[in-house]
UniProtKB/TrEMBL annotation, chain A:
GO BP annotation list: regulation of transcription by RNA polymerase III
PANTHER family to which the protein is assigned, alphabetical: CASEIN KINASE II SUBUNIT BETA (PTHR11740)
Pfam families: CK_II_beta
Protein family according to the UniProt entry: Belongs to the casein kinase 2 subunit beta family.
InterPro entries from the UniProt entry: Casein_kin_II_reg-sub_N (IPR016149), Casein_kinase_II_beta-like (IPR035991), Casein_kinase_II_reg-sub (IPR000704)
Function: Regulatory subunit of casein kinase II/CK2. As part of the kinase complex regulates the basal catalytic activity of the alpha subunit a constitutively active serine/threonine-protein kinase that phosphorylates a large number of substrates containing acidic residues C-terminal to the phosphorylated serine or threonine.
Molecular function per GO: protein serine/threonine kinase inhibitor activity
Name of the protein this chain belongs to: Casein kinase II subunit beta
Originating organism: Brettanomyces naardenensis
GO CC terms in record: cytoplasm; protein kinase CK2 complex; UTP-C complex
Subunit description: Tetramer of two alpha and two beta subunits.
TrEMBL record, chain B:
Signal peptide: none
Bias (Acidic residues): 230-240
Stated name of the protein: Casein kinase II subunit beta
GO molecular function: protein serine/threonine kinase inhibitor activity
SMART domains tied to this protein: CK_II_beta (SM01085)
């Protein structure tokens, strides 16, 4: 308890928070996480298989839900280990929770607030990002950010986020999120950048870009064949090229 | 100065050569005074106290525009190369670019339109600087041609990029790929695609000078004209920068449309 308390005070100096979950979400670097319902955590069914990653799962659940507190009689290392395990377990439950409908709606709010940052790509025009893991197993890769506009992966801007495990969000989260909220699939911006010297485009880059635009044309033809609307009004459709660079030869 | 770590020091000889400043007097107000400030010369007529902030501002603008010309010359490119090696401009935020170093560029050569952007030679795309302190630096202080010139000057960057992964990210739901028919399905794959199979390489070869399809990309006519206008202007600049030797080389490999 003391370790948590002192850590919290040294972090921000604000009043002591009562609940473990609030403390966890309030500490620096955990801005990507949302709060998991206590009912979800206490339901044993939702924890199936997690005991292979942490031991004494029952005690950890009790710590997370504030039913017990880490006793102060234990040595420092044991307390720190319990603390770390509790965080780890919470994050793993979090990965499962955010693909449930309640979790998705909580993440939607965070997405709307731009808690995960915005796409750094200029032509994405600050599309909000979604956190994604490259593996569902913990300790494989750190969290990455997915941009629904350019459908690409980015590293988190801040180093305190790049140390978060990707398994705490899971590989399926962005897809689940966009399936659930299809209206949030952006109209894809199709502008591309081609480097120029004194107004002339660089040949290799321009050639590759032309080929990529050709690929896009082929995709549009395929969609047309399937009678799928890809206009700029539909989610997942394509915007008109506005930039002088796109479309110009 | 704060946020000015993208800049290199322009050689005083470059600034002193009036030839390198051709055309700048019409863009920068208080041109003479601003130039004196940059070169630390005592002005013949003291600047009116009311004008001091204006002159300071003009000096910043002038220095930036000279900087844009200077970094296209050989010594300029070399000093920018050192900064690039030190990763002064940051690394590409894209995961599959594996921390490729970025280059500062502007999308316009005229000042006051857009702030500086960062170009990644690997994914061939432009990004916003990660720190807000670079958001008040004008893109024209680096210019549209810098990234291209830089890569022609240091062809090993291109080789480095070719070795990097061509892998693309595929969004999966419980391990299953999404179909492109779904609104959230993969529809931007083309953006990072590289020709892999034989047919694709053949297709790419056909794209050498134009798109092979009948219905070419629209609005070619209008932008073509606009670009011609820009081209003349920029060619003038090329003369002034005195970067003719290296420019000549790179022109060989650029296609003229």
């Amino acid at each position: 308890m003391t370790s948590r308390q002192s850590e919290y005070v040294s972090d921000s100096g604000s009043d002591y928070t009562e609940y473990w979950v609030d403390w966890f979400l309030g500490s620096r670097g955990n801005e990507y996480f949302c709060d998991v319902d206590l009912e979800y955590i206490t339901d044993r069914f939702n924890l199936t298989g997690l005991n292979q990653y942490v031991d004494r799962i029952g005690l950890l659940v009790d710590i997370i839900t504030d039913r017990t507190q880490i006793s102060e009689t234990q040595p420092e290392e044991a307390r720190a280990r319990l603390e770390d395990n509790a965080k780890f377990l919470y994050a793993l439950i979090h990965a499962r929770y955010i693909i449930t409908s309640r979790g998705l709606s909580k993440m939607l709010e965070k997405y709307r607030n731009g808690d995960f940052g915005y796409c750094p790509r200029v032509n994405c025009k600050l599309t909000p990002l979604l956190p994604v893991g490259l593996s569902d197993k913990p300790r494989v890769a750190s969290v990455k950010l997915y941009c629904p506009n350019c459908e690409d992966l980015y590293n988190p801007k801040s180093s305190r986020h790049s140390s978060i495990d990707g398994a705490f969000f899971g590989t399926s989260f962005p897809a689940m999120f966009l399936q659930n909220y299809p209206e949030l699939v952006p109209t894809h911006n199709v502008d591309v950048y081609i480097p120029k010297i004194f107004g002339f485009q660089l040949h290799t880059q321009a050639q590759l870009t032309r080929w990529r635009l050709l690929k896009r044309e082929q995709l549009l033809k395929r969609l047309e064949g399937l009678k799928i609307d890809y206009g700029k009004e539909v989610p997942g459709g394509f915007a008109e090229p506005v930039d002088e660079v796109a479309g110009a030869k | 100065m704060f946020g000015h770590d993208y800049f290199v020091e322009v050689a005083p000889e470059f600034i002193e050569d009036d030839f390198n400043l051709t055309g700048l007097s019409s863009i920068v107000p208080f041109f003479r005074d601003a130039l004196d400030v940059i070169l630390d010369l005592e002005p013949e007529v003291p600047i009116k106290p009311a004008n001091v902030p204006l002159v300071e501002h003009a000096a910043e603008l002038l220095y930036g525009l000279i900087h844009a010309r200077y970094i296209l010359t050989k010594p300029g490119l070399r000093s920018m190369g050192e900064k690039y090696e030190d990763n002064c401009f940051g690394s590409c935020p894209r995961y599959y670019c594996q921390g490729m170093h970025l280059l500062p560029i502007g999308r316009y050569d005229q000042p006051g339109i857009e702030t500086v952007r960062l170009y990644c030679p690997n994914c061939n795309d432009i990004y916003l600087p990660s720190s807000s302190r670079y958001l008040n630096i004008d893109g024209a202080f680096f210019g549209t041609s810098f990234a291209g010139m830089f890569m022609k000057m240091f062809p090993e960057i291109q080789r480095q990029c070719d070795e990097r992964t061509k892998k693309q990210f595929e969004l999966k739901l419980f391990g299953f790929r999404l179909n492109e028919r779904a609104p959230g399905g993969p529809r931007m794959k083309w953006l990072r695609q590289y020709p892999q199979s034989k047919e694709e390489i053949e297709e790419c070869r056909k794209c050498e000078f134009a798109m092979p399809t009948e219905e070419d990309e629209d609005n070619t006519g209008t932008t073509g004209e606009a670009e011609d206008g820009r081209m003349d202007e920029d060619n003038e600049e090329e003369e002034t920068t005195g970067a003719r030797a290296s420019a000549g080389e790179s022109m060989m490999s650029i296609v003229k449309d």
